[in-house]
Structures are given as C-alpha cells and as structure tokens.
Design goal:
The structure holds three protein chains of three kinds. By secondary structure, chain A is α+β, with helices and mostly antiparallel strands. Chain A has four helices and nine strands, in the order E-E-E-H-E-E-E-E-E-H-H-E-H. Chain A has a single domain, classed as RNA polymerase II/Efflux pump adaptor protein, barrel-sandwich hybrid domain (OB fold (Dihydrolipoamide Acetyltransferase, E2P), Beta Barrel). Chain A is globular, with a radius of gyration of 14 Å. By secondary structure, chain B is an alpha/beta fold. Chain B folds into two domains: about 110 residues, Aspartate Aminotransferase, domain 1 (Alpha-Beta Complex), CATH 3.90.1150; about 260 residues, Aspartate Aminotransferase, domain 2, CATH 3.40.640. Chain B is built from 14 helices and 15 strands. Chain C contains 16 helices and 13 strands. Chain C has a seven-stranded mixed sheet, with helices on both faces. Chain C has a four-stranded antiparallel sheet with strand order 10-11-13-12, with helices on one face. Chain C folds into three domains: about 55 residues, no CATH class; about 260 residues, Type I PLP-dependent aspartate aminotransferase-like (Major domain) (Aspartate Aminotransferase, domain 2), CATH 3.40.640; about 120 residues, Alpha-Beta Complex (Aspartate Aminotransferase, domain 1). Chain C is globular. The chains are: A alpha+beta, B alpha/beta, C alpha/beta. The interface between B and C is large, with 206 and 208 residues.
C-alpha cells in the first residue's frame, strides 16, 4: 500500500510539493526515503536563494548514497526546515510532515499543473519497484 | 615460480572442472590480432641472491643519509625514525590489508587511523584531520579546490614563501577547475604583508602561506589570517607537523585549513616518496573535506567500533561530484606517523623541535662567522635557513660532498633571485661535530 | 550466539600515563638550547600538545594487538575485486629498505643519485614494454592521480592542436575515480550505457562521438571481468573523430604478456603498482599510479622526466608543454623499488604465468559458484568474476549479509555492490597467488552460505560474530561524526 498522499503533487525525481496559497512546501517522498536508507545529512539552500523548476536545490545523503534534490517549481526560498541539520532522521520518520525541506514562493503558479498528481506518481513507483 | 602455488597437475584438474582443455580456451574472447605474439621483452628473471647483489650495488651509487651528513631540506627531512616503527608496520596484518571496506575485519587499521586523525588535529590545533592525502604538495592543491567550492570564488593567493614545487602542483590541479593563482612576494624572509593585503580581494577563495616557509622563516600567521578573513577568504597554512610539538599550532592563530608534509614523522625520505599529506580543518568544513575519514561508533552489542564515515563525499559514491578524485590514502605512512607520535609523546615531540632549532641556530651562527658567508634573510627561522655564499652554491655543495656532507639545496633552480644561496636544514640528528666539520669544509671551499 | 572473546579495546591515548616516555633523543650538544632564547615568544606553544605518554612496551604491545584485529593477505584469502590482493613478496620490502634507497633525500644532486635514477629509467622502460606504450611517467602517487595526469595530458594535447573539447565519455560500469578525475580536469562527464555483459554499447558510443569529445575512458578488461572484444573497433571509431582513448589499468593483472593496451589502440593507460605489481596495499595506501602514453602525448608529460645520456641519468626540467607536477618530488620511489624488484624476480615467463593463473583461478571460482549464484555474463571471465546474489536476495539475504558471513568463515569478503550495473554484486578476484585448496575452501564457504540462506539464514543475519566487533552503526557514525579522540569519551 504505497504512501502517496492525494493532496500533494510529485516530480519524477521523487519530490513532493504542497500548495499553500502563493507558496509551495517541498520534501522527498516516502518511496525516496525508503530507497535512500537512513538519511544522515541534508544540504539545503539559503533563505532568499532563487531556484528553478527541475534544477537541483540541495542534496540528501544517506550512508551509502547521495541524491540531488530537484525543485518541483520555480521561485524564491522563503523558509528552510531548521530541524533537519540536527535531526536528519526526521526525513525517514515523517517525510510528508516534519520532514519538509523548503518553502518556495512561486514565481510561476502555472507550473503546478505540470506536476504529477498522486495517481500518476503511484504508477511510477509501482513500476520502479520490483 | 614461488609466488604461484598451483602445479601443472593442479592446473589440469582445474581446467577439467571448468570444462576447457587449456588456459588458451579461456582467452578466446580476445581477438587474435590483439594478442602479443612474443614473450615480453623485459630482463630475464633473477634468482634472489643475484637480485640482492645487483640492487645493493645500484643502491650503493646513491649518497644516502647514513653515509653522509644530511643538511638537505626543502620539504623532506632527515629526522629520527625510532626503531619500533619498522617492526610494527611490517606486521603482515597491517601492510597487506587494504581499505577497510569490511570494518569488522579491519579494526586494526581503522583504530590506528582514528588515533592518527586525533594526533594531527592536536598538533595542528584544528577540529578535525582526515586519514591523509598523498603528500604535502597535493594537500595544498586539495585545499585550493576545497576553498573554491566553499567560497564559490575563483582566485587563490599564494605567498612566494610556499615551496615552489608545491606551487607547481597547485597550478596543475587548478588548471581544470579554472582557478587563478596570484602571488604575494616575500620580504626579508617572511611574506610581505602589505603586498598580501593588496593581492587579496573579493574573488579570493583562500590565502596560502607556509610556516615555517620554504626559506625556513617563521611567518605572522595571525596577521595573514586577519587579511584573509577581512575579505571573506579562507586561510590555508602549510605546516610541517614535526615542528608543531614546539611551535604554536596554526589552528590557534586563525587557520581555516592546515595542510603539509608529514614525512618528518617517521616516514623514510626514500628519494621523495611515498609521503604523507596532512589535511586538517575547522569543524564546519568537515563535510567538504577530501579524503577518507574514520569515525567512532558502536556495534550491535554497544561495543565501541570504528568505521569509514562521511563516505558520500568520496568518488566511489559521488563520482563526478566528489569533493576530490582521491581513492587511497597513504595508510601505511599514516601508521608510521601514528607510531612515531606515540613513541615521541608530548615530551619527545617538543624535544625534537627544540633540538632542531637549537642546532640550526648554532649552525647559522657558526657558518655566518666565515668571511663572505651570511644569512640571506633577517626574519626569524626555525630549522632551516638560506645561506648566501660568495662562490657558486652548486660548486660549494660539490666540494662538501667529498667530505661526506650533503650541504644543502642550491636555490637557483627554485628562484633565480636567490641564485647565490644554499638552503640548509638542520634536524635533531645533526651533531655539533658534523656542524663544525661542515663549517671547516665550507670555510675552505669559499676561501 | 555471540561468543564472548577477550577483546582489546584501547586507544593509545587511553594507555597514557604522565611521566612515561618511549623516545630516545640525545641531549643538546650546542651552547644555546632554550628555544625562548632563540625564537620570538609568540611562536612557541603555550602548552605541550595533548599527546600520549607511553613506554616503548606500551607502543609495541598496543600496535601488535591492533594488527591482530585485521585480516590481511598474509593471513587470509582477500578476494576484493579489481584490487588484485596478491601476495606481497618480502624481498621487495628488503630492497626498498636498502639505505641507498630508503635513506636517500629527493634533492640529492643527480650525480650522487644515479642508482635511483637508473632504477626509475629501467622501470619506466619495463612498464612501457609491458603496456606497449612509448613513455611512462612514474610520478603519480596513486591510480587516481595517474588518471588525472592522463586526462590532463589529453586536454593539453587537444589545446595544443587549437581544439577546446569539453566532454569525456565514460561507461556506467566504470570505477568512481574515472568520472571524478575527469571532472577534476575540467571536463563534463557523459555516461554511456553498457550492454548486459558490461561491454561497451557500440551504438551508444557512436551516437556520442563528436568533435566536442576529448576522450573515452574504459577499463580493459571491464569491471565485470570481461575482455572488451570489440576494442579495435572502439579505438578506431574514437580516433576517427579525434577522440583519445584512455585505459584504466586496474585490471592489468588479467593481460600481462597476453595483450598490451598500446597494441589495442589506446593512447594513454595508467598502472596500479599496488595491484598488478605487488607493492603492498598498506591498509589503504600508499599506492603508485604510473601513466603510460603514446609518443604524440610526450610533450605533455609531468615534469621532470628521467632521461638517459650515455651511461648518465638526469632529470629533464625543460618541458615547456608539460602539464606540470602532481607530487612535490618524483614519484613514490619506495614503491618503484618494489615494482622493479618484482619484475626482475618474475621475468617474461613469470609475468605471463601471472595472467594465465589469474584467469584460471577466477574461472575456477566462477565454475564452482555458478550453481548457487547468478553469473553476471555468459562465457569465460578474465582475472575476476562478478556474480549476483539475486537469488539469495529473494530469500532475504543480501550481498552484505554474505560478506559478513564470509568473515566468520575465515575469509575477507569480495567487493560488494560494484559494478553498479549488477544487482547485489559480488566481485571476486582471487589472483594467481592463491592455491587451488584455498579456492576450494572459499567456494565451499560460499556454497554453504547459499544453502544456509535457504535452510537456516540466522547465522548469516547475525554475522559476523567471531570478529572483534559485530556489525557497526554506520548511520550513527555519519549523523554525528566523532572523528577524533577526546578525553573521558569512548
């Protein structure tokens, strides 16, 4: 039973986005954290950084792997999760809740329509897993 | 063939198990036109006693520091190598093991590296040191690359007091990443701080000074740190850890990275390699550091254990995004250094520094009394100094060789403006008699 | 379950006792010995460094006990793939320690270092002959540095021809140092897909070749232990577009005396002396990574180059197009002595016997394992084989588990999870110096583990239990790194 909340949207690189007015909250999916294993470190951009959809905005590290984080949407980083540097394990425990990574103030709201809805993402991860 | 155990009979049995007639059948994928159709044209195999005789003769052609009094320095030093080191590192479990990929079966190596990291951090006055890099020169290069990544700036200012051979290596490493190198001149032996201040700007990723520097002179590390930090650049100090038992560690003077050559810590000079690249950093830079790191942890039973950690910085995981391309460290040389520091201890390592500087000052004073010979620089020096001679340093050195003295490094090849100078290093191993004999020979040579 | 063994769990700092010492230094024999009288005060440490105070007995016992916590080639079969953990001859150690070599300062005047220069010249000629290359630089400190040197020479070559190419092609099966070294040389890395058996996909290669590609880097044989049989085609295709071809020499042990990179069309190759040429692995180095090149790259060699003029040897520093230097001095000379000694010990027939037996041993292991473990490719392998623990994974036993169980059964584990293109990969390189009996013991153990995976996997999951520590918390080590000893902490 895949953990793919319906109200969020997704990228093919396994990030999720939650629309909050003119902003979006972003993190990595339950599938992503499971693939990575125990997260040991998260590198996030500074507040104020400008990011572009599908370009990298940071890095998430586990013991044996490291993954780039891809921005689902373009805009300016207005908030970063200060918990993560101290407690990276939160990403594993609660990827959609306390494990959020950044909040972007969107520069192009139309980009939201290009993101994958939950159903499509579920299909993507079903075919990836063997 | 003493390194190959299988007899022809065993080979035949193995081939039968595999189901082929000969080893040639196993090479069938190799196109015929790729095959070497003749034996290799390398010299015929030598029996062990012949080999030993041959190499003894070849090695005897070299003026080594057991037969000659060695006053050569410039990045490699004839410091004492306590006797237990060779015995311990020759234990097969140490020198025939490889990278500790299976930590449970590599606790010996991992613990000794952890000790090494601790000792280097303590000597340099820094928060963390890695498990070693190849040599002092490439450590400086790695520091330059790291400074670029951390500050996102593209220029490095190197004092002319940094070993010119190190500078060449930095240039080679900085070619690909497009890092520009600028220089700050040396004044009367130490870096000209006014010139340094002018050279450092908003695009400077790091300032690099060597302490003591290539000419043996002590630098004002604190002032250099202030200059670097005022512009948001890192300060990289190139240091010789064997001196840091006595000298104030660069970490206490504002260094962000301390790098250098650890050969003096019990590693044989061996015509320039293998060496021991030291690399130490402040805490907040740890995840950007190149090279291996060993960390403490616990096992399933809560027992203390050690593992390679923060490996995601490294090439085997990050590949083209790795902090560096380095794969091996120089584990066996790091082990030599670890044992050296254990043997010297807090008291001995200070004494090595005290003896080296005392003898160097005695030598400088004694040589300076010879007419026509003087110290080139006025800045305070530690265990090395540049001697200005009235005759060609190369010729003088050649004459002193006849007295079984390796007099020093002529500086012309490194810096044309110092062509009248000989760089003389004096370690704790040089006796007063050796120094007096040098003085007598030198006086005759320049008369 | 866990058998309690009397463990040794001390660090040298914890043996420290104020007043103990192990050093033996002479008293000062010069008039002024107080550093405070010789140096400005601010340069002197306020307090001595917090380093151990131990006796010589403490030191010897401590490091001897630590050594006993290691597996090494001298004590255990050590089948790490592509690492060539072959026997390290003891004569090499004796020769490297001759005073004329070990006690020689690098800046000794050349006229007084002729023995060292001659050895370097002879070794570079031997390596050139073994590889079919025209020149060999002995300067790089390790394979990764050899790669960097090779890629920088290729870069200099293109620039000298007025071409600024920006890409290097590397197969997805490559060792991580390949893309890392390439990126360091300022190139962008383009990853090519391999075929099922790890061979280069010629179509993918063709698609990517262009005049913006500087080089193609491959390992021969490849990282699955298979010879790239289409190599002539590959090098021809590359040269037709002006692309230089680089051979990662990590797997040289498979081809000594059988084939030579220079004859296959390679422009550059590096050697790992700590692999093929028996210099000791040392717990993780030092290595030595000489790099061989074809004539057209000669102007770009690292400086200085050893040259021979009649019977005299010297360093040539007059190399205006050189890529520069990789190390302060001339190379890991101590390792060069060992490699020279090995080559003279083996001679041409001995070197050929190395690759023959390396290939024989790897194929024997592959044959004895194939009932229980999936091959990664059909046909004979070369000096190493890659098997997949795919079947075991379905039973909940991973490559990691198998590795740990092997430790309990008295073997160091093969490489796991490399190459990346094989699922649950176990890469096994027995080397030629192992006996059939050892190989049988290893294969028996591997097959036993496969049976245990089916019938009784608990010992596998618990493994290792006979080592000084059990499985270690890598996550904790990475989340809260503790990288040095601090007092009153473990």
């Amino acid at each position: 039973m895949a953990n793919v909340p319906g109200e969020l949207r997704y990228t093919k690189e396994h990030e999720w986005a939650k629309l909050e007015g003119d902003k979006a909250r972003v993190g990595i999916t339950a599938f992503a954290q499971e693939q990575l294993g125990d997260v040991v470190f998260v590198e996030l951009p500074k507040v104020g950084a400008k990011i572009t959809a599908m370009k990298t905005f940071g890095v998430v590290e586990s013991v044996k792997a490291v993954s780039d984080l891809f921005a689902p949407l373009s805009g300016e980083v207005v908030e970063i999760n200060a918990e993560l540097p101290k407690k990276p394990e939160v990403v594993n425990a609660d990827p959609y809740g306390k494990g959020w990574m950044i909040v972007i103030k969107l520069s192009n709201a139309k980009e939201w329509d290009g993101l994958m809805p939950a159903g499509d993402y579920e299909k993507l991860i079903a075919s990836a897993a063997h | 063939m003493r390194y190959i155990s299988n007899t022809p009979a065993q080979q035949r049995e193995m081939l039968a198990t595999i189901g082929v007639g000969s080893i040639e059948d196993l090479l069938s994928r190799i196109p015929t036109k790729a095959r070497l159709s003749r034996p290799l044209n390398v010299p015929a195999a030598m029996a062990e006693s012949d080999l030993v005789r041959h190499l003894r003769a070849l090695s005897a052609l070299n003026a080594n520091a057991d037969d000659y009094a060695c006053f050569l320095g410039a990045g490699s030093y004839d410091h004492s190598v306590p006797s237990p080191i060779n015995h311990l590192i020759s234990r097969g479990e140490f020198f025939t093991a490889y990278t500790p990929y299976q930590p449970e079966a590599s606790q010996g190596t991992l613990r000794s590296i952890f000790e090494y990291q601790s000792m280097m951090a303590e000597l340099t006055g820094m928060d963390v040191a890695n498990a070693s890099l190849y040599d002092g020169a490439s450590s400086v290069a790695e520091a330059a690359l790291m400074a670029q990544a951390v500050t996102e700036r593209n220029a490095i200012v190197l004092s002319r007091g940094v070993n010119p051979l190190y500078r060449q290596v930095v240039e080679t490493y900085c070619e690909g990443p497009g890092i520009r190198l600028k220089s700050a001149p040396v004044g009367d032996g130490a870096t000209d701080l006014d010139a340094l201040r002018k050279a450092v700007g908003g695009q400077t990723a790091a300032v690099v000074i060597q302490h003591p520097n290539f000419f043996g002179c002590l630098e004002d590390v604190k002032a250099a740190a202030e200059i670097a930090h005022a512009e948001g650049a890192l300060l990289v100090v190139v240091a010789d850890p064997v001196n840091l038992g006595l000298l104030t560690p660069p970490g206490a003077l504002g260094a962000d990275l301390v790098v250098g050559e650890g050969q003096g810590l019990g590693v044989p000079m061996s015509f320039g390699g293998p060496n021991l690249g030291v690399f130490a950093a402040r805490q907040e830079l740890v995840r950007r550091m190149p090279g291996r790191l060993v960390g403490a942890t616990v096992d399933l039973d809560g027992q203390r254990g050690f593992v390679l950690t923060l490996q995601t910085r490294e090439q085997h995981i990050r590949r083209e995004k790795a902090t560096s391309n380095i794969c091996t460290n120089v584990a066996l040389c790091a082990l030599m250094a670890t044992i050296y520091v254990s043997i010297m201890g807090k008291v001995g390592i200070r004494k090595v520094g005290e003896l080296s500087t005392a003898k160097a000052h005695y030598a400088a004073e004694t040589f300076g009394k010879i007419p026509g010979v003087r110290l080139r620089f006025a800045a305070p020096f530690f265990k090395e100094f540049a001697l200005e001679l009235p005759k060609s340093p190369e010729r003088v050195a050649k004459r002193l060789m006849k007295e079984k003295i390796l007099a020093g490094v002529p500086l012309k090849a490194f810096d044309r403006s110092q062509k009248d100078c000989l760089l003389v290093a004096v370690t704790e191993k040089r006796t007063r008699n050796e120094i007096d004999a040098y003085a007598a020979a030198l006086a005759a040579a320049v008369a | 379950m866990h058998t309690a063994k009397p463990g040794y769990d001390k660090l040298i700092f914890e043996l420290s006792c104020p007043g103990r010492h192990a050093h033996s230094l002479p008293s000062s024999d010069v008039p002024v010995s107080d550093p405070a009288q010789l140096l400005p005060k601010e340069h002197l440490r306020a307090a001595p460094p917090e380093l151990p105070e131990v006796s010589e007995v403490d030191v010897v016992r401590h490091y001897s006990r630590l050594s006993q916590m290691n597996y090494g080639v001298d004590t255990h079969f050590y089948p790490l793939g592509s690492c060539t953990m072959k026997y390290n001859p003891k004569i090499n150690e004796d020769m490297a320690r001759l005073a004329g070599f070990a006690r020689l300062h690098p800046l000794t005047p050349e006229a007084a270092a002729q023995g060292a220069l001659r050895l370097m010249d002879e070794l570079s000629r031997d390596l050139a002959e073994v590889s079919g290359m025209d020149h060999v630089s002995l300067q790089p400190a390790a394979g990764a540095q050899g790669e960097l040197a090779g890629v920088l020479m290729i870069r200099a070559y293109h620039l000298a021809r007025g071409e600024r190419r920006t890409k290097v092609l590397i197969p997805d099966s490559a060792h991580g140092t390949n893309p890392a070294s390439t990126a360091l040389a300022g190139y962008s890395v383009v990853e090519l897909k391999s075929e099922q058996n790890g061979e280069v996909d010629l179509h993918d290669l063709e698609r990517h070749l262009s005049d913006d590609v500087a080089a193609f880097m491959i390992t021969q044989p490849n990282t699955l232990g298979l010879f790239e049989s289409k190599i002539h085609q590959i090098t021809e295709m590359c040269h037709a577009t002006g692309v230089q071809v680089y051979m990662d020499g990590a797997n040289f042990n498979a081809i000594l005396g059988i084939t030579r990179p220079g004859d296959l069309g390679f422009d550059v190759c590096h050697f790992n002396l700590h692999k093929t040429f028996t210099t000791p692995h040392g717990g993780g180095g030092p290595g030595a990574g000489p790099v061989g090149i074809k004539e057209h790259l000669a102007p770009f060699l690292p400086t200085p180059v050893v040259v021979k003029d009649g019977d005299e040897y010297a360093f040539d520093w007059n190399r205006p197009q050189s890529i520069g230097k990789l190390q302060a001095f001339w190379g890991n000379f101590g390792m060069l002595v060992r490699a020279w000694t090995y080559i003279r010990t083996m001679g041409p027939d001995g070197l050929r016997a190395v690759s023959d037996n390396a290939v024989l041993n790897a194929n024997y292991v592959l044959k004895r394992l194939e009932a229980e473990y999936d091959r990664s490719a059909p046909g004979p392998c070369m000096h190493e084989c890659v098997v997949s623990a795919r079947r075991q994974k379905k039973l909940g036993v991973t490559a990691t588990d198998i590795a740990k169980r092997l430790l309990d059964l008295g073997f160091y584990a093969p490489t796991t999870y490399f190459p990346l293109i094989v699922e649950e990969a176990l890469m096994i390189e027995p080397t030629e110096t192992e006996s059939r009996e050892t190989l049988d013991e290893f294969c028996d153990a591997m097959n036993q583990i496969a049976r245990e995976a089916r019938d009784n996997p608990q010992p596998i999951h618990d493994a290792p239990v006979t080592t000084p520590v059990r499985r270690l918390d890598q996550t904790g080590a990475a989340r809260q790194p503790r990288l040095k000893w601090t007092p009153l902490r473990t």
